[in-house]
Structure formats: C-alpha cells, structure tokens
Amino acid sequence: MPTKMIEIQHLKKEFNGNEVLKDISEEVDKGQVICVIGPSGAGKSTFLRCLNVLEKPTAGKVLFEGQDLTNISDPELDKLREKMGMVFQGFNLFPNMTVVNNIKIAPIKVKGLSEEEATKTAMELLKKVGLENKANVYPDSLSGGQKQRVAIVRSLAMDPEVMLFDEPTSALDPEMVDEVLNVMQELANSGMTMVVVTHEMGFAKEVADQIWFMADGYIQESGKPEDFFSHPTSDRAKEFLKKVLK
Amino acid sequence: MKHFKQLLMLCILCVSVFLAPLNAFAAATSSSSSASSSSSSTTSSTNAATDDSLQRIKQKGTLVVGTSADYPPYEFTTKKNGKTEYVGFEMDVAKQFAKDLGVKLVIKNMDFDSLLVALESHKVDTVIAGMNITPERKKSVDFSKPYYTGHKYFLINKADKAKYKSVNSFKGKTVGAQNGAMEYNLVKQNIPNVQEKGLAKITSLVIALQSHKVDGVLMDEATAKAYANNNSNLYTFNSHIKIDSGGIAMAFPKGDKSLEAAANQTVDKINKEDLINKKWIPQASKYMKSYKKHNTVASYWTFFAKGVEYTLIITVIAVFFGFLLGTLFALMRLSQNKILHGIAVCYIEFIRGTPMLVQIMFVYFGIGAVIQSLPALVAGIIAVSVNSGAYVAEVIRSGIQSLPIGQTEAARSLGMTKKQTFHFIIMPQAMRNIWPALGNEFITLLKDSSLVSTIGVGELMYQTQLVQADTYKGVLPLFITMMIYFVLTFTLTRILNYFEGRMKHAH
C-alpha cells in the first residue's frame, strides 16, 4: 500500500479575476515520479508553485504528509518547505556566493548544521553530479547546465522528501539538456518522489510513473506514460501530442 | 508580533512629532497676543500671577544667557588655553547678574534672529545680546531697565571714504544689516530707495562688505569701531540716525517678573557705578587688542579640530541611525500591511519634501519646547538622522526591488524564513547594488551636518564662524573649512570605494 505524500483537493488559483487553475484534485505517492505536461499557458508552473505555496491558492487544499499547507502558520510552513526541494527554470543561484556556499547556506542557517558537516555533504553531492572542481567558483562562470546541476544539488543538500522541478531544462542550450536530465533520472532511480513540469517528452515517457496532462486550468488526463502517449483520450491531449511528437 | 512592535514604535514617534508643533504654536500665539497671561497653558512655570521665575533659577543653580557672540565689544569670543571664552562688556553684565543671583552662568551662543524664539521656548532664561528695547519686541518679551545706549555707525571700505559721508549718500545703494536687529529697520526707514541685505551674522556682513556685495553696513558704534580698528581696510563714521529705542537691555520671557526685578537691581548698580564705560569697555578693547597681535587664522587650529570632532560625531551617529531608520522604513514601505506602508510613505514623502534647515530648527525649538532639556547637539543629531533615514529608505527600497523575485523564491523554497531570506540573501545583494548611492547619501550627510551650526552646535561650520568673528577675517577661515570638508569627504569616498571593491571581489 503506497503512502500518500501530497494530496491536492479542489485547488483553484486566480490572478486578478483571471482563473488560471480551475479545479484540480490529484495525489502523489511516496517514490512516485510525476511529469506534468501540456501546452504553454495551461497553468503548469502556477500549479507546481501552489504545491509549496510560493503561490497561495485561492481555494482548495494542498496536503503534505497530511498537513494542509494552505492553512498553517508561517513558521510551520517554513518547516515543511525544508522537505520540499524546488528547482527553477532560471536556476536562481545566489550570485554573491560561491557554488559550495550556495549549497551550504540553507543547511547551516535552517538546519543548524556545522560548517564541516555542511561542506562534507555539499562536496559529496557535487561529486555525484561531476562538479566537485567547481566548488569554489561563482555561479557567473558556470554554463547553464552546470548551474542547473548546482541548483539541484542545493535542494538535495536539505535532504528533501519530494523534489519539484519547474521546467528545469527550458532555459538551457540543447547540448546541455541531457546532463541535467541524467542527474534527474538518477535521482528518480534512487527513489526520490518528484513532480516535474517539463516539455521533454522523451524524459517523461522514460522516467515518469504518471503523466498529468494539463490544459485550460484543468488536469485533463492522467495515466501511465505508455497509455497516455499511445492512447490519449481527450481531444486536447491528442491535439497536443500531434504537435509535439510530429 | 514583529509588526505590532514596529507599529507601536511608530505611534510613539508620530505622536511626539505631532504634539510638538501644537505646543509650540500654543506657546507662540499666547505670547504674541501679549495682553493675557503668557504661554501659560504649556509651560505652567511662567504664569505672571504665580511667578516663580527667580526661584526656579535659584533652584537649578544656573542662569542660561542667550547671546550672539559676533558683536565686539558687546560680546565676542577669545581663546584661553585653546578653549573658547565669551568676553565683551555684556558678558560682564551677565557675570554680574549671575553673581548677584548666586548662580552659575551658562552662555548659549546662537544667531541673533534665533534668540527671541529661544527665549520664548525657554531654551534660555534671558537674552543679553546688545538687544535694543523696541515696541515690537515688547509685544513678545519683557525687558529690564536699559544699561547702555549706543549710536549707530556705518562700516564701509576705506577706499569708499570719499563716496559715503552721510545717510543720504547711500541713496539707491545696497546696505547690510543683521537680521532681526534694530538696524535692519533703521536702514529701511532712513535711507530712500535703499536696497537692503540682511544676514544672520555681523561677520558675514563684513565679508559681504569686503567683497563689495554691500556698500555699507549699519551697526552699533562700539562694534563698528572695533572692526575699523582691527582691519585697516575698513572705515566707520557716525550715521546720526535718530533712535527711538529705549536703549539696550536684558530680555525675559513675558511674565518672568521676579527675575526681571532682580535684573533691574543689577542694572541699577551697574549704571550707578558706570561700570560699563569705566571698566568693562576698556577691558573688552584690551581683549580685542591683545588678540590682534596673534590672531592669525592658523593659531586657531584647535577651533577647527574641535569642529571636525563634532562634525564627525554627528556624521557617524546620524549615519548609523539614518541607516537603521532607512532599513526600517524601506521594509515598512515594502510591507503587505497597508498601515505600515502608509506610515512609511508619509514619513518619506514629508521628510523629503521639507528643507533640512527647517527640520533642524523645528526639532530644536519645537520638540525642545516639550522636552526642555534637549541639548542642541542631540536635537541636531535627531534631525539629521531622521532626514537621512528618508533618503536611505528609498535607496534601500530600490536596492531590494532591483533583485529578481527568483532569489526570494529560491531561498524560501529551501525553508528559509522571511527574516533569514532578507538577512542572508536579499540584503547582501541589495547592499552591493546600492553601495554607490548609499555612499553618496553619507557624503551628503557629512556636508549637510554644517546646517546644525544654526542652532549653536559646535561643529566645523560653527567654529569657522567663531574664527571669523575672532580674527576679523572672512574668507580665509571659509577656505580652510572648505578644504577640511573636502579632505573629509574625499577620505570617506576612498573608504567607501575600498568596500565597494571588496564586494565586487566576492562576486
């Protein structure tokens, strides 16, 4: 019996009267890899950002390990966010810190780790993604792919229980996409629970346990990748796949 | 909870800021209307019916005398063992009065036109500053019996000796007089078509004369003679302007009858023995002569050193509190809370929309009317800090807003609290971006601190004016001061650049 990690109940989000998310209810089990795909403007990023309440939902609930994130105090929310790593399209590394300091700051300040412990963890993780020789440079001197791998490591250093990816390869030059996807695949293989908003259909097909297809503020379809890609049921999905797969 | 504390602090600040003018206005209106009991509502101690002014002085053990020590031989400054000392025959009057009362004498030196305000707001107990009794002044203050009457003389450049010989030769010319002094009105009334230039200090007027900004300056006989004797380029002659003044006397707040009566006893004694003409004026001239010998500007380096010390004290403290206030108000302005946001906007707009000089005088005279013991230095530091805070707030706000929102989101998604995000992620980056603008603000602050000289704080500009008065030289002390300010700001710029470089390195 799989344990539920995230439950989304009747989630709605409006921006100034413009309904971006209309009514979404889904579940993420522990160890599952979910890929959220769909046309631009479908609300995929907004949906992902509602999961760790970077956007506060207008209505509905987001339960993480049974606790409703939309209705708790700020300190409690901060506590739960430690367990939810997030990787952004634009990396958002801290430009005024070296790579290793980017990775260490949250474990030290938030978790209270010692300097040595944090450094040790950071170096081990950097080694895993092949960037241990970049520990003491500033983000400016890294390529996009390297930046994104550092950003992933920065989240992993907090030892999260779920990782949220917001189009992690969309801002990258094509030759750098694979180095990031490989890291993500290894992460998935190691059993990490992941929710990935992506346009990489190959990755979704190969790695995802479930595909959630989003359009017009709803999740129109969800299912195993082999079913979804070969037998989409909704017209929106058929139309979308025709365009992206050719 | 954090917001609540901030709000509470601000409420206190606002209440005190808004109460101060009310009290000041109440004091001003009640004293200028003159007829009824004076300034009774706010300062209960000065009611004519139950006048305890004399008793009050004796209780506190000090007599605070306001003067404008740029008026030899009435009152001027000399240095003794590197320390400023106030001398002149009126200072002898003050000493005598304090001695008769059996209390310690404290001299407060300020601009002549600030003296009556200082008296009304009880910053000083009496004014002894060559002040003539006039009907206008009598409306707002009381006078003792007069102890001296002097003729009015014109001070001119010696080169113009042939050109100006009487009042009539100034027809259509520019004549200077001290703001708030009786000469200012005399010029208007006695010279047809005159263009009048009023300045706060006699020393400034003499500089204006020497640089031909004015053709002559009308001032008191004794003072005019002192200048002419000490500066071979100047010449003075009697204006023969008739004065309807009742002579020079001590001024008191309306209603301080018992103190005034005590003063009259002192004045009677002085007049009876003719102390001023026989003893004190010769003594004052001696001071002026003895200083003429070695009153080179360079020998006043202790004045400049003292001035630099105070300027730096004011700057350092005001930079610190200005930065603190600026950060606080920047955060409030960026806050979601509408009340905090509103307060911050009001503060920033109001402070930026009013002149700093007015703010300084308002804090000293306005808030000083509520808190009597507020020293000028503290008032000056408060005003400068509050002023700087508004500008720093805008600089910091722009620095924070210039950062991409992604930085905050990344930090928050790592579990950092709002405070940690601000402290470790936002502020260090914002500081690096705004450092040049912030440095600019600090340099402006250092220079603007010269404005607090108007309320008598002994910083660099104030000391410069003392040196001008002492040496009878106008331009050289100013030039030295300008150089000192430049060295200070240039050093500050170097220091700021050093830190800017270091922050760039860490990138």
Automatic annotation (TrEMBL), chain B:
| Biological processes per GO annotation | amino acid transport
Q: Which PROSITE patterns does the UniProt record give?
A: ABC_TM1 (PS50928)
Q: Where in the cell is it found?
A: Cell membrane
Q: How does it sit in the membrane?
A: Multi-pass membrane protein
Q: Show the segment(s) annotated as Disordered.
A: 31-51
GO cellular component terms given for this protein: ATP-binding cassette (ABC) transporter complex
Q: Which residues form the ABC transmembrane type-1 domain?
A: 308-496
Molecular function (Gene Ontology), one example: transmembrane transporter activity
* Entry keywords, A to Z: Amino-acid transport, Cell membrane, Membrane, Signal, Transmembrane, Transmembrane helix, Transport
Q: Which Pfam families match?
A: BPD_transp_1, SBP_bac_3
Return the Low complexity bias intervals.
31-50
- Signal peptide region: 1-26
Protein name, UniProt field: ABC transporter, permease protein
Q: Which family does it belong to?
A: Belongs to the binding-protein-dependent transport system permease family. HisMQ subfamily.
Which CDD domains does the entry link to? TM_PBP2
